[in-house]
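Quick question about two entries, pasted in order.
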Amino acid sequence: METILEMRRITKVYPDRSSAANREVSLDLRRGEILCLAGENGAGKSTLMKILYGLTPATEGEIRIRGKIAAIHSPLDANRLGIGMVHQHFMLFSEFTVAQNVVMGIEPKKFKFFLDTAKSNALVQKVIDAHHFSIEAGKTVGSLTVGEMQQVEIVKMLYRNVDILILDEPTAVLTDRETESLFKSLRILAETGKSLILITHKLSEIKEISDRVVVMRRGELTAVRDTADLDEREISRLMYRRREPSAGERMFPCASGFPASPREVPLKRKPVSDRTVLSFQDVTVRRRNQEQPLLNRISFSVHEGEILAFAGVGGNGLGVLEAVLGGFLPLNSGRIRCREEDISRCNSEKLRRRGLAYVPSDRIAYGSAASAPVWENIIINRRREFSEWGFLNRRKSEAFAAELLDRYAIAGNSSMPLAFLSGGNIQKTVLAREIEQYNDYIVFCEPTRGLDVSSSLYVYSQMESLRNSGTAVILISSNLDEILALADRIIVLYRGSIAAERENPLHSPATEETRNIKEEIGERMLGLKKT
């Protein structure tokens, strides 16, 4: 079978990281093949595909298309070389028609200046019919279901005559019926000579749709196998295999993915209180035109002096849970209580006033104002405290910020723009601000993503100190090593529902019973175990 794509020794190192997102990854793709790219969150799958699609440059390595070295600096370069990508979050204009979305940027023109609507509809409908999709060129995208919107994204790429199609978590928001329809379409594409790469975590789908599977872990390629030669449990083991701690050893993951000695983290833990701080009762969140709920009847409680961790893979509800906890996404049904107070309808501002502390997964986009000085970022939620007669007391604000910089060992000064700090120091700044304002509970979302070893251990030590002081801590993380090192209790989310809830046994010395706990939780995250 003809090899259409070769990626050789691809390495990607970000300037603010001490480890490689990809490390000498080599793979090939054959004509008419469906290749699944599997691995836990943070394994480097998306980075590798962004390099292939021209969204980010590789630090080292080369890409060959049909045997020739290819320079891919942008998605336009990728499209010209016959490479297309369908992102997990659709890039469509809901008020435009299917045809208008598909031809955007390469529209057929009438009189050189105006969109030729009739020709656009005819050309796009021809692509739709040729590949047996169920959408219509003249329909408005806003009236479509999620599954039909995904078809529009695929048609956009086929209209540009791509031979290689990358799909990022294509079934994350689809119902079983929509998934079945999508797979039928993908098989037809492969039969006509198109080559497909699917980024996915769903083991049953890997077995059902792919010819080969590539498994990545910690930025490296760990296995390339014919799918027919693997069962689902073997794929899971390849994704989640880990070194177990020796007796009495606490394993804290560092930025490179390898264990680091947690000297700064207290080993002795106080028992969890039976006093409930926060509870969810049958919380359901839906998106318009989507049959599958984003969160489906979620119920849990977190107690004083407890770290409750949520584990899951992309598209299964972690991001939605973060948005609900932060007050950015309303509930369709259910109730949230803090102590005895109903906070179900509180927005972010009201939750902040109530005492929510929240370290977001994206500290730049949602946790800070990069161009503002450090002191403004620190007092942003407490401006009233630092105001006199309606005016902000800058001297008092800067003095408070300087005190926190010293207390939390943040390298920088309070008057410099936050963007001038390193990634680790920005995270410490957000952390300091949130810890200083919390009342009842604090939410950490991907707290060490992109941090080096020392910064990661510092964050862990702060979380442990909060827990031991009686704080209720919620940890949302796609890093399973991190969860197993910190959590008292673990809840696994799968397709928006709670797939498992269990105490974390790894605070005790390793035993035969606890030796494969990571693989077991990984299987539940992937839907392999359902009881």
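Here is the second entry:
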Amino acid sequence: MGVYFNPRNESYQRARNSRIFIDKTGLIEYLNQRLSTEENCIALSHARRFGKSHAAGMIDAYYSRGCDSSKLFDDTKIAESADYRKYMNQYNVIHLDISSFWDFYKDNIVEKIVEYIYKDFKKSFGDELDYQDNISYVLMKIYQKTNNPFVIIIDEWDCVIRNSNDKELVHKYLQFLHSLFKSEESKSFLALAYITGILPIKKIQDESALNNFREYTMLDSYPITEYYGFTEGEVRTLCREYDMDFESTKAWYNGYLIDDVHMYNPNSVSMAMDRHKFDSYWKNTSSFASINTFITMNYAGLKDDVMTMLAGGKVRVNTNTFQNDFFTVASKDDALTALIHLGYLGYDADRKSTFIPNYEVATAFEAALQTGEWKEIAKAISTCDELLDETIDGNADRVAELVELAHETYTSVLNYNDENSLSCVLTMAYFTAPAYYDIIREHPAGKGYADFIFRPRDNAGWRPAMVVELKYNQSADTAIRQIKEKRYQGALSGYGDKILLVGINYDTDGKDQKHHTCVIEEWME
């Protein structure tokens, strides 16, 4: 029983004691089926705060001989499995968090990992083992002594790969992993390997330390997708329990489409439920500098693609060229793929396209744009709150000015110059509105399709519903007239509070040096 060898179950005990606990023990049944088979090496690469460490704590609590975890699992889903008791607390477990070693021992990390593991072994076996031997040999000797095979859990396994370009250090680290997972000795002592990281396994020439692992990533984690992040059903249940609006929760934290399953950021959902407030909690727990690193790379089409996604669109991406590290990003596709693995973009495998998954991540992009060559765009985005307020207050002239600023800023990137393009500009101009509204473009309404419906969610407070119609080389009055004649406000049927009709026209003639005009009226039956 030690820190790294046969740890106790405190980590999972804290999870069980938490106010918000989602039962993910079905993962254990999946792992039990792979114990001591040729499919016993599992590599999970998911974004930060997506439950990887939670799962690692659950796994060592279940398998470790250093504790009795029956009270933690008897009322969970895994207890329904026929093999539940057969495997529980029956294995020698080694559990490492590589990032904690990297913080202090960058130059001699492998030696320090082995040193600390051996310290734990000495507590259990004293001088019965020769601690000068290779670690794989020592593990084999322990297996022979105890007749208990090993479950080896490594959290943040890719920390060295992500943070070091020192080939000698990386080679030494991979040789260490080889001794644990692919040495001749490991064939006898290894029952299960479970490693987690952010990046998929990098294929390094002449290195085979991890080529026997089955990978589960942000691109494809079937059939264990549901065990990381929160599913839509789980989030609905939490919203009922904590009296939180599900649609608002969905807008803020949904969007990760993995194997056709909509996954939610579990850390952010839990924080929102606990604080009873929607906010960008994820960006407060990890650095968002990497967004700016990748979106400002000077690759043809990258800036256009980022702008398209900020405006609510999807862009095609080839994820196959990415080399699974941050040192060899060589194209637009590599930059976008890196952001997918980091969790800053979602991925639609069916369409092979990427997108900004939710409002929380959109705010992270907004923060990243405050520097460098994006300052002009960041300035336009910074007016979004003002634009929404001025629209609600009925200040049509100021709305026209702010829309014009947005149009001038974004057309310099995407060359918008028609009514459809104006819709994209409006999406950007009202960039912060999704915090309060369900915004629907081209919504069937009355006798046609309304360009925009702004339907307030429960957290919208005093903000009214809005119908926005766009015109090109016509007039804002024409837009208002069309809303009324075609009864687009019918899309808000059943909504009992204030409804605003907003007409915006873009005039390429630029009469009176103004391209945009706006009319705002309150709907009266």
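Reply: The chain has four domains: 10-226, 229-284, 289-368, 376-522. The CA atoms of residues 181 and 416 lie 54 Å apart. Hope that helps.
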